[in-house]
Amino acid sequence: MEEHSGSEARCIRNPPPQVKEAAENPAIGAHTDFGSLSFLHNRLGGLQVMPPGHDEWSFVRPIPGHAICNVGDALALFSGGILQSNIHRVVPPPGAQVEYERWSLVFFTRPGNSGVLHALVDSSPLIAEAVKKQPDRNFETGSTAAAWFARRIKNQRINNRTGPETWAASRGTEHTPTVV
Ligand SMILES: O=C(O)CCC(=O)C(=O)O
Ligand SMILES: [Fe+2]
């Protein structure tokens, strides 16, 4: 714990949709998280994931007393793509839950600001092997965590998101072979 990082805790409140048609609209558009691991604490449903290789959304059911853990893009990079960051979004809660306000408490862990994001090939033969097998992907971002997060946050702005499938506009790790 020697330096600052972009780690943050966030408390998110989504009021129930005002009109019925809004029930399909995402409250948080499709994206991958930027950091290492995210820990989500939800009481109501509404979180959906699209796992790699799938083209449909699935609800993630909150389990009382448990957190939902997302792998973020920095961890995907560190691991040479062995761990994948998942695309997810938040829609109004399903069924009768739609009547209620949805609260979510999230803790995002992120690497220290000055660290340069790259695959940890010198720390793990498994990661070195994985990187070798993906010559078309760039795991050497040349970017510090601080610069990387600044760019990702800028790209996440609502103006860049014209629909639920425009998650690519936020430049997550999976929409293109290069991650930089
Ligand atoms: O509210 C949730 O369940 C997820 C929120 C989320 O994905 C985020 O803030 O990055
Ligand atoms: Fe997220």
From TrEMBL:
<dbReference type="InterPro" id="IPR005123">
    <property type="entry name" value="Oxoglu/Fe-dep_dioxygenase_dom"/>
</dbReference>
<feature type="compositionally biased region" description="Basic and acidic residues">
    <location>
        <begin position="1"/>
        <end position="11"/>
    </location>
</feature>
<feature type="region of interest" description="Disordered">
    <location>
        <begin position="161"/>
        <end position="180"/>
    </location>
</feature>
<dbReference type="InterPro" id="IPR050231">
    <property type="entry name" value="Iron_ascorbate_oxido_reductase"/>
</dbReference>
<protein>
    <submittedName>
        <fullName>Clavaminate synthase-like protein</fullName>
    </submittedName>
</protein>
<dbReference type="InterPro" id="IPR044861">
    <property type="entry name" value="IPNS-like_FE2OG_OXY"/>
</dbReference>
<dbReference type="Pfam" id="PF03171">
    <property type="entry name" value="2OG-FeII_Oxy"/>
</dbReference>
<feature type="domain" description="Fe2OG dioxygenase">
    <location>
        <begin position="5"/>
        <end position="111"/>
    </location>
</feature>
<feature type="region of interest" description="Disordered">
    <location>
        <begin position="1"/>
        <end position="20"/>
    </location>
</feature>
<dbReference type="InterPro" id="IPR027443">
    <property type="entry name" value="IPNS-like_sf"/>
</dbReference>
